[in-house]
């Protein structure tokens, strides 16, 4: 579609979004007449003769309407109503993968045309604090200039960029510096909130962000500090109830936020867990604090309903954070995103929750590409402007915004969520992770390997996925190549520990020789391809800091494979009487978990997955 945009300011914005909107600027094109009025109850667009008349509540809704009008051939008019005041994403910048400024700008453009109105950057220690040189050192932290650049870029397109930080716990990488732990640490990754220097640190953090962001919002975190007050705080201040320590610290942080004209948002779980007596004490969240309930695990509407009800008893300003699942290992779980989001947002509507986010955590080193968040972003867009979920309509939205169909997106998860698995019971299962990384001689999940081998022809399944991604023309070629290389390596490695053990127990020296001298070298070439694909994609999406961890992990697989081949050949040559590791007894790896077995088990702890011997102290 060719557009003639008369308003100079709007014209500059449309020019920036031409590619994402699917339009070009042309004085001879359709004349765009645009009105933005936050008081409108509905937004609409209609194409009349050579004029496009558009009325919207905000800029992102303007872009959403234009995007659909320009790309849906049968659409000449459209009227929509938002279900929520704000919808957006929270990008995890703290799990080794700090999005490059250029890549983050591309996401901002995409999110803007989806109608997203805010975007949070989850930054534990990856932003510049001038007084704290070790804060985010070697981690790819954003400079103040970079954050100001991103803030201005987002604001120009109508998106409010909001910092999400930690002011109580989750500062584990900062605490890796021993002198920092001695100065500020309580226990685990929790700050000693009884020390004046801790409040000085928090003020330095917030003061730095005030210089970078125009928003009046700041997310101060404060989640999962379950050992609060049980370390050096206990030694210095004595034993106090955790909730009492939390309340006192919250009041101190609020004062700092207000000093720098920030209205804080905080997580809710410290008030609703076995560690808190909030409900019986009838505690009320202080005014001026928005409580954000996070939950991306449940698939049952009634459970969300109950949890929203409980939280509204202590606050009249409740927000919600769901999840766009990219933190189960090496591939995303889009079905988990869908099955948890639909009931959650239905309950949110019932309780009048206005502000929504989809978190995009990158636990265990951001192995899954950042690109995966776009599925959840489109889902939140769709549910913002539609009253009920319709799969065909959602599929059309995915095609509109990503070129990929719903079926294409779901292929990304199918090395985990197999057709033979039961949904939703299997939504967490991540065999692609632990079968890729478990040891060849002492595999922790050998029982699950056997179970999967009996359940399905997993090699055939992975071969089909490999072909699918190799021939997929839609979407990003770099992303498609990553998934192709991943399943290609997994295809060669997943059963290898079992095949090796079977051959050893059968004294099948020919198969053992083939494994050592043909299969493992072939696997290492596939691992090279996987590493090359992941490296290329990482450097497109993120700063280089953190990539070394991915290189360590895949490189360790190659080195270990070479070592295993040496052990096998020594055995075959009679240099050793036996391969001692293969005589280790196998045990259930997750004996205390309710969900175990290949169809339901999730395991993401990298070090223990690769070895039960300690890799690092």
Automatic annotation (TrEMBL):
Domain of life: Bacteria
Name of the protein this chain belongs to: Beta-N-acetylhexosaminidase
PANTHER family given in the database record: BCDNA.GH04120
Pfam family for this entry, one: Glyco_hydro_20
Entry similarity comment: Belongs to the glycosyl hydrolase 20 family.
UniProt domain Glycoside hydrolase family 20 catalytic: residue ranges: 88-298
Ranges of residues in domain Glycoside Hydrolase 20C C-terminal: 408-587
Keyword Hydrolase: yes
InterPro entries from the UniProt entry: GH (IPR017853), Glyco_H_20C_C (IPR041063), Glyco_hydro_20_cat (IPR015883), HEXDC-like (IPR038901)
Biological process according to GO: carbohydrate metabolic process
Keyword Chloroplast among record annotations: no
């Amino acid at each position: 579609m060719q557009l003639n945009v008369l308003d100079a300011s709007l014209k500059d914005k449309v020019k920036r979004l031409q590619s994402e909107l699917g339009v070009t600027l042309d004085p001879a094109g359709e004349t765009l007449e645009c009105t933005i009025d936050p008081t409108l109850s509905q937004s609409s667009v209609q194409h009349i003769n050579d004029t496009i008349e558009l009325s919207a509540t905000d800029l992102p809704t303007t872009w959403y309407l234009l995007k659909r009008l320009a790309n849906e051939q049968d659409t000449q008019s459209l009227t929509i109503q938002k279900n929520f005041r704000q919808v957006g994403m929270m990008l995890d910048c703290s799990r080794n993968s700090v999005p490059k400024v250029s890549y983050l700008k591309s996401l901002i453009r995409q999110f803007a045309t989806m109608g997203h109105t805010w975007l949070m950057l989850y930054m534990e220690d990856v932003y510049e604090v001038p007084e704290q040189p070790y804060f985010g050192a070697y981690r790819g932290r954003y400079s103040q200039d970079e954050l100001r650049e991103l803030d201005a870029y987002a604001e120009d397109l109508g998106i409010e960029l909001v910092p999400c930080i930690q002011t109580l716990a989750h500062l584990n990488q900062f605490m890796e510096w021993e002198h920092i732990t001695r100065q500020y640490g309580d226990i685990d990754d929790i700050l000693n909130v009884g020390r004046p220097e801790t409040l000085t640190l928090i003020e330095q953090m917030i003061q730095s962000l005030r210089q970078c962001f125009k928003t009046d919002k700041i997310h101060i975190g404060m989640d999962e500090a379950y050992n609060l007050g049980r370390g050096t705080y206990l030694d210095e201040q004595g034993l106090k109830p955790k909730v009492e320590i939390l309340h006192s610290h919250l009041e101190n942080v609020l004062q700092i936020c207000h000093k720098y004209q920030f209205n804080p948002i905080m997580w809710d779980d410290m008030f609703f867990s076995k560690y808190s007596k909030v409900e019986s004490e009838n505690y009320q969240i202080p005014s001026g604090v928005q409580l954000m309930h996070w939950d991306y695990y449940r698939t049952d509407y009634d459970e969300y309903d109950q949890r929203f009800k409980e939280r509204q008893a202590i606050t009249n300003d409740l927000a919600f954070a769901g999840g766009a699942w990219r933190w189960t290992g090496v591939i995303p779980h889009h079905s988990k995103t869908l099955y948890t989001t639909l009931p959650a947002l239905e309950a949110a509507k019932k309780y009048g929750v206005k502000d929504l986010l989809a978190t995009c955590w990158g636990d265990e080193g951001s192995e899954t590409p950042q690109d995966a968040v776009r599925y959840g972003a489109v889902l939140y867009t769709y549910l913002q402007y539609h009253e009920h979920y319709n799969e065909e309509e959602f599929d059309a939205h995915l095609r509109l915004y990503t070129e990929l169909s719903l079926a294409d997106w779901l292929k990304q998860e199918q090395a985990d969520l197999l057709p033979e698995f039961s949904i939703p019971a299997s939504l967490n299962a991540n065999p692609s992770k632990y079968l890729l990384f478990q040891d060849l001689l002492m595999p922790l999940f050998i029982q699950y390997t056997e179970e999967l081998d009996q359940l399905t022809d997993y090699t055939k399944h992975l071969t089909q996925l490999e072909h699918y991604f190799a021939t997929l023309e839609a979407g990003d070629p770099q992303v498609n190549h990553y998934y192709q290389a991943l399943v290609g390596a997994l295809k060669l490695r997943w059963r290898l520990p079992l095949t090796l053990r079977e051959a050893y127990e059968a004294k099948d020296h020919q198969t053992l020789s083939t494994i050592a001298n043909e299969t493992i070298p072939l696997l290492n070439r596939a691992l090279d391809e996987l590493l090359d694909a992941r490296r290329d994609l990482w450097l497109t999406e993120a700063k280089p800091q953190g990539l070394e961890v991915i290189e360590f992990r895949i490189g360790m697989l190659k080195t270990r494979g070479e070592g295993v081949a040496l052990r096998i050949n020594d055995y075959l040559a009679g240099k050793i009487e036996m391969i001692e590791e293969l005589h280790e007894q196998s045990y259930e790896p997750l004996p205390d978990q309710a969900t175990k077995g290949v169809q339901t088990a999730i395991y993401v702890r990298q070090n223990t997955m690769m070895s039960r011997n300690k890799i690092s102290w």
